[in-house]
Amino acid sequence: MAIYLDHAATTPMTPEVLGEFTRALAVAGNPSSIHSQGQAARRMLEEARLAVADAVGAETVEVTFTSGGTESINLALKGLFWAREGNRVLSTRAEHHATIDSLEWLESHEGAVIEWIPGDDAGRIDLDALAAALSPDVAFVTTLLANNEVGTIQPVREIVELASAHGVPVHVDAVSAFGSVPIDFAALGAAAMSVSAHKVGGPVGVGALVLGRGASVTPLLHGGNQQRARSGTMDAAGAHAFGVAATAATRDLAHLPQLAALRDRLVAGVQSGVPTAVLRGDPVDRLPGNAHFTFPGCEGDSLLFLLDAAGFSVSTGSACQAGVPEASHVLLAMGLSEADARGALRFTLGHTTTADEVDALVAVLPGVVERAHAAGLS
Fold first, then answer.
1. Where is the Aminotransferase class V domain positioned along the sequence (predicted)?
2. Is the dihedral of CA 131, 133, 139, 145 positive or negative?
3. CA-to-CA distance for 90 and 267, rounded, in angstroms?
4. Which of 2, 28, 320, 363 is catalytic?
5. pTM higher than 0.90, yes or no?
6. How far, CA to CA in Å, does 262 sit from each of 41, 54, 69, 291?
7. Of 359, 1, 336, 62, residue with least CA distance to 208
8. pLDDT tens digits for range 248-294
9. Distance CA 209, CA 188 (A)
């Protein structure tokens, strides 16, 4: 059986969530119907909305269910842009593709002026550069809470404070951070925040946009006004499973130090077994389950395939189009050369990871790196 070390991509459902999801799928009725079966589905949906709101420190009215993180981000960015008067948008090139592609679409089709704020070699935004770029004509700022590839945690409160001084709303992509760090939407002061169910052990195809009471977005979807910022029949069963997963992931964050200790065990083992490996991202202020390395002279895809053959599921954290390896845009934004960026592997741990699994990876990795290095860069 493969050892799963790709929790940042998706984390397996727990038996509790799977059981509740299966039970909820048997509930008939459209949540918008007024008969008793429809209202039973509505009750399940609203209980899920409360659970997600509690998990992220928001109010229930602020939670709009979506089809996942990508839709949430698209709704936030396009919706904020259309609802605002300014045409300048501030972000970094180290964002998730859902953000970058949305911003580039706004630039191509809606006249947005995208200004890319530089970051440091850990992938953290330059606050001085952000402060210099801010002005009332900025439509919004969008930032990750934690980088989905290298795990660096961003100074979101400082970003929001800087933007708020100019009356500029901030969207926070918390998809990778949700369940891995404490999140309090109210305390952050952001206008909007995106989260996704399958990153915390819920089903794929469900997410949420948390939209502050004072924030306004123009909807992407029209036809029913079933939710504050989104039309469409709501997935009550998926939302229920999301609520169960969100509650489980956030009700006891005491496990996070143990997860960080496992990550540190992996990092130490990799650095000992492969001295040339370079840990990327902030060494301290990073997600507790994230260990991201580059291996000089190696192709990340070669490392991934060799590890897959050895029974380990990991990620390069980079895109691959038409079978041609492509360097991670995140690592390039951090200042790495294309050759160095192509030698990336991301190991992400979660609730199923054990010390024995970490040790097994550490034991097999030196041989894998040796073989990949011999193959070289394609």
1. 3-361
2. negative
3. 33
4. 320
5. yes
6. 40, 28, 27, 10
7. 62
8. 998 878 889 999 999 999 999 999 999 999 999 999 999 999 999 99
9. 15
* Domain assignment of residue 9, yes or no: no
In the numeric block, the tokens 């550490």 are attached to 362
SS3 366: helix
152: its two tokens: 């660096």
Classify 103 as helix, strand or coil: helix
- If asked whether residues 231 and 258 sit together in one domain, one would say no
Q: Is residue 8 part of a domain?
A: no
Q: Considering only 226-230, 298-302, 307-311, which range has the smallest mean pLDDT? A: 226-230
Rounded Cα distance, 301 and 147, in Å: 21
- Residue 298 annotated as catalytic: no
Q: Which two tokens stand for residue 319?
A: 């895109």
- Among the three residues 250, 284, 299, which one is the final residue of a domain in this structure? 250
- DSSP calls for 272-339: HH-TT-EEES-SSSB-TTEEEEE-TT--HHHHHHHHHHTTEE-B--S-EETTEE---HHHHHTT--HH
Q: How far is CA 141 from the centre of its chain?
A: 17
Gap between the Cα atoms of 144 and 156, Å rounded: 8
